[in-house]
Specification:
Number of helices: 5
Strand content: under 5%
Structural class: mainly alpha
Oligomer: single chain
Largest sheet: 2 strands, antiparallel
Strand order of the largest sheet: 1-2
Radius of gyration: 22 Å
Order of helices and strands: EEHHHHH
Bound molecules: protoporphyrin IX containing FE
Distance between the termini: 30 Å
């Protein structure tokens, strides 16, 4: 089936046509709205988990920077190493939950909702911007974020006793990439919660 069909107001995709015809029949309307609400709750929770780590990340990075300038004793080095590995682990975990949760539910919400569509530049500008920002996030995560995390992990495992200059450089690099991703997630969060007050579309 060709992906564009005419039905109701203007042209919409086949998915929209199918979803509106079958999912929004009065018979199942209540159940469908319930599923959409669950998806929205998971979507928001994923965003909260992803963003919840942002302030924790700032505090952890400050501690790491402080310790890197004075990791003279063996015990300070041990603390620094475990702090860096906790930072990496928590960052990866909250990032994975946030990214997968938001992406899956965002795509389902957009496909199943009668009001929204993908990359529709004529309406819902907040949603198009969110989708484009999400593409930028995916590119950053798929390229720099994952490779810096991998390099940092392997650099740490190469030397068990010291924190090298290379480790310090990689922590800083990873920290800035993660900071940039969190800022983009924050922009999307703000776009999502303010859209009903700022636009009429
Ligand atoms: C980092 C990325 C994202 C964040 C932080 C985010 C956050 C949110 C939040 C907090 C809401 C609830 C807004 C409200 O109801 O007041 C929301 C709603 C929604 N989001 Fe996202 N979102 C993100 C990405 C996406 C993507 C990529 C899509 C689509 C592919 C998407 C589709 C939607 C849809 C359709 C709604 C429902 C809006 C409504 O019915 O009012 N989101 N998002």
């Amino acid at each position: 089936m060709v992906s564009k069909l005419k039905h109701g107001k203007g042209e919409r995709s086949f998915t929209h046509y199918f979803v509106n015809k079958h999912l929004y029949s009065p018979k199942n309307y209540g159940a469908k709205m319930f599923v959409l609400s669950i998806l929205l709750v998971i979507h928001i929770l994923s965003a909260v988990i992803w963003l919840g780590f942002f302030p924790i990340e700032i505090i952890m990075r400050r501690k790491i920077t402080k310790l890197t300038t004075k990791n003279d004793t063996q015990s300070e080095t041990v603390i620094l190493r475990s702090l860096i590995s906790d930072y990496l682990q928590l960052n990866g975990l909250t990032g994975k939950i946030g990214l997968i949760g938001i992406l899956l539910t965002g795509v389902l919400l957009t496909s199943f909702s009668p009001y929204y569509s993908f990359f529709d530049f004529t309406a819902n500008h907040w949603l198009v911007t969110k989708q484009m920002v999400m593409i930028i996030i995916l590119i950053i995560v798929g390229t720099v974020y994952m490779s810096s995390a991998r390099k940092l992990r392997s650099s740490l495992s190469m030397n068990e006793k010291f924190i090298t200059e290379e480790d310090v450089y990689l922590v800083k690099k990873f920290g800035w990439v993660s900071f940039a991703v969190h800022i983009l997630v924050l922009i999307n969060f703000l776009l999502a919660i303010t859209h009903r007050f700022l636009s009429h579309s």
